[in-house]
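Troubleshooting log. The previous structure file for this entry was overwritten by mistake, so regenerating from the original sequence record. Sequence copied from the archived sheet and checked twice against the printout by T.R.
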Amino acid sequence: KEKENKMRLVHACAMSTLCFPIHHKSYLANVQFSSKYPFLTTTPTQRRYLVVASTSSSSAIAGTMQHTLKFPPPFHPTYDLRNVIKLALTEDAANSGDITSLATIPPEIQAEAHFLAKENGVAAGIALASLVFEEVDPLLKVEWACDDGDLVTKGLQFGSVHGSARSILLAERVVLNFMQRMSGIATLTKAMVNAAKPARILETRKTVPGLRVIDKWAVLIGGGENHRMGLFDMVLIKDNHISVAGSVAKGIAAVSQYLKQNNLDMGVEVEARTLEEVKEVILHKGSGRGKVTRIMLDNMVVPLPNGDVDVSMLKEAVLLVDGQLETEASGNVTLSAVNKIGATGVTFISSGSLTHSVKALDISLNIDTELALAVGRRTCRA
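Regenerated output below.
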């Protein structure tokens, strides 16, 4: 009978995707399961058997959520989104759990907390927040009044979570950290997208280590597009590659040979820093597999002392390319300059500031909402 119960525990966890690392004392040590799973208990003996191998990479999540998510996470072949969530929770609670909540809140206490926007912006991280709550306690009931990509205004209550007070507070900071950062990225992306038209906005690889997929997911939610995910999915011959190869032409030739030898078919982009390099890229762009498909026009936007930018060199480079390749403007890209950059005719504008210098959107999660609103009004934050 004991063996049968152990197998039921493992099967139940697998079926409900509760991929919890609880073979040691962990942040889930005090989660209380309801009658939905009457055979699940939280005794130390049974807790040891709640160990299920996670198969929820971001690619798997993207695949299973395509029909339910407005903005599925971008594909990455090795990224495990659920593991990132678990690492974030373990980082916060370690092996002891939420000491303050364990000391002050009886395990049976239920609560309801509300999400409050403290400034205007684009909501992002809603789907991720739901995954975090599910990871902490699948019995939490989460409801949203908006979706990823929707605008929220200062003072708006746009979501709620109901269930174990301990579970809500255990998830609170991790949820808010993800949502505030993602919403900040999405908000700035949206502003740049609107200002840059008809050019299209890309981010870069200048993301927080370990949060690559999450940062790039936020860009998609804000209406931008993803540049290459990493070093593996696109060729980008940059200045250092050109220096080592000996010239733009030699770098392009080496890439073409490598892709053909290894039967690889992917986009090839070359960075050009001068008009002479632009001409060289066009001359040696090649054809067929390994051909150059995009040119990065780097630092051809020149800041001026009065705060404006000079885009004359960028515009001349775009004219030289004359539609033979996709063009990407990079360097000195700011929200105030992006409209002028977009007017030059470039296909894309890439901005590292979307992810490396983002300002988080101010969001809170409050159980006593009325008091939180009163404090917010007093500090002009609600």
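Residues 6-60, 62-67 have pLDDT under 50 and may be disordered. Archived copy saved in two places this time.
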